Amino acid sequence: VEIPESVTLIGEYAFYCCYSMASIEIPENVTEIGYRAFERCKTLDNVIIPDSVTKLGMSVFSRCENLKNIKLSDNITILDNCLFASCSALESIEIPEGVTELHSQVFYKTKIKSFYIPEGVIKIEYGVFEDCKSLEYLYIPSTVEDFGLTSANEAAVIDCPALTTIEVSPESPYYTVVDGVVFTKDVKTLVYYPEGLENTSY
Predict the structure, then answer these.
(1) 15, 23 in Cβ contact below 8 A?
(2) Given the DSSP bridges, would you call strands 181-184 and 175-178 parallel, antiparallel or unpaired?
(3) What is the pLDDT of residues 89-119, one digit of tens each?
(4) How many helices (H) and strands (E) does the chain have?
(5) Residue 139 φ then ψ, to 5°
């Protein structure tokens, strides 16, 4: 599908449930892609979002079960709720350096194995990595202030049984890792014990 160059906004539900659409060309004039615009495009496997795009709505690519490759705009700052939720073929993604927030369940039920959160991200909300069964490694930069781990109802990492390694930037003033376990920087609060650790006692 080729979208006309005159288009600046791809509206809500624009291509919802277009099961046969395997590819899409988004023109450089587009600045915003609306809520659920490409949700359940089950054969869509490759997407390039031009740098003209500054806003992606919630669930834009949710349940695109065949999506394997996506290039994000360098000018977005927020990855909104459920943006790639249930993209069950998605194994890797590069996050632009300008992103500051990862919202709830943005990578829910993806197959991402290793995830490097770039410097500049400040907030990671509830369930960002929920039910990511393949996730083995997670890097947290020095800029993350809120890792969504203050209670069971706000955890950023949920049901990730393969997760064995979380690395925190040594420059972080907020968090640290001791023996593979995440603590607040002062080591007074145990924040997260990775589910994949095989210790028989702790």
Answers:
(1) no
(2) antiparallel
(3) 999 999 999 999 999 999 999 999 999 999 9
(4) 0, 14
(5) -110, 130
